[in-house]
Design a protein that fits this description.
It contains ten helices and 14 strands. It is an alpha+beta fold. It has an eight-stranded mixed β-sheet, with helices on both faces. It has a four-stranded mixed β-sheet with strand order 3-6-4-5. Bound molecules: adenosine-5'-diphosphate and magnesium ion.
């Protein structure tokens, strides 16, 4: 590499930390030393993004730096944790200064917004691969889990579903949208907004939660399995992006159910806390009730008052030919 590993770390990643007395020792030694508040639990999550597999190889370093942190923060959001630290392991085919500048700018744009300190990492040469680990806090025993949904709880999602899947389909020439819609959905794919404030606001309210990285059906399915319950989903109530008008509601519902990368939250709440939950989230993000937890042990979908069956890649009306 033209830049040395030391230069890369110093020039692009070793930033001054403000307001981080909990970082006793950050970048520069063999390990970081971090202080966890006595009344909190530490939540740790990691995700790897491989070029060509988890993102198209043409996306800009700025978007990539943002996105690799966003997808990790989304996991903390789903647990209701407040983010604090991150580590970054970068595998790079080459040390390109412009690329590193864009990538680190994207990464720190989001890190700074959430008061997150980069406290260590690693750099190796190889096919472009990015691993981020994030660390956050939650009150003792308070973190939201996939397990915990009860029969009768209502199922909610934040934001809109399906835009990121549409964006990826456009990038891969599987879908044609107007320029305006492409812009809208591309932003949702490239710059997902980890729902951290919403996750924290749901502490003490939600009985279970997950972030939607693999599509609503798959991720709600994880809640149902962990909680040993079923659910009835009302497809008519799914919050869809405005691009749905262009491709038709049916096609848009397919994206909402089956495509990933939206990084919205799906959570369950007992009916009695719904008014307070909606009040708490009012100024944070849109939330939509899309169904109810049942004792069926299955995920049943309803559309226009009819039950529809879900197939591997979408759904089908009963009796449809
Ligand atoms: P070692 O060889 O002991 O693992 P390194 O030379 O890999 O140490 O890293 C030196 C310091 O720089 C360590 O504190 C490490 O955590 C940090 N570091 C390495 N790569 C990155 C990175 N991409 N981002 C942030 N910190 C990094
Ligand atoms: Mg190392």
């Amino acid at each position: 590499m033209s830049l040395t590993e030391f230069e890369i770390i110093q020039d692009y990643f070793n930033r001054r930390l403000n307001g981080h007395a909990d970082v006793v020792l950050g970048i520069g030694d063999d390990a970081a030393i971090l202080e966890v508040p006595a009344d909190k639990q530490l939540l740790v999550s990691t995700d790897t993004l491989v070029s060509g597999l988890h993102f198209p190889d043409h996306i800009s370093p700025l978007d990539l730096g943002y996105r690799c942190l966003a997808v990790n923060l989304s996991d903390l959001a789903a647990m209701g944790a407040s983010p604090r630290w991150a580590t970054l392991a970068l595998t790079l085919p080459e040390a390109n200064a412009a690329w590193l500048q864009g990538f680190s700018d994207g990464f720190f744009t989001l890190a700074d917004r959430h008061g997150l300190a980069l406290v260590g990492g690693d750099i190796t040469r190889g096919p472009l691969t990015i691993t981020v680990q994030v660390h956050g806090f939650a009150g003792r025993g308070q973190a939201l889990c996939r397990k915990g949904a009860n029969v009768g709880d209502l199922v909610y999602v934040t934001g809109e579903l399906g835009a990121a899947g549409m964006a990826l389909a456009c990038m891969e020439h599987r879908l044609d949208l107007s320029a305006e819609s492409v812009n809208q959905v591309a932003r949702r794919y490239l710059r997902p907004e980890p729902r951290l404030a919403a996750g924290m606001a749901l502490i003490g309210m939600a009985s279970s939660a997950i972030d939607i990285s693999d599509g609503l059906l798959a991720d709600l399915g994880h809640i149902l399995k962990a909680s040993e319950v079923g659910a009835t989903l009302r497809l008519d109530d799914l919050p869809l992006p405005s691009a749905a008008d262009e491709i038709g509601r049916n096609a848009a519902v397919h994206y909402a159910l089956g495509s990933g990368d939206d990084y919205e939250l799906c959570f369950t709440v007992p009916a009695v806390v719904v008014p307070e939950m909606e009040q708490r989230l009012r100024n944070l993000c849109a939330v939509t009730c899309i169904g109810e937890i049942s004792d069926s042990n299955e995920l049943d979908c309803m559309e226009a008052g009819q039950t529809v069956t879900i197939t591997g890649h979408g759904f089908q009306h009963f009796g449809a030919d």
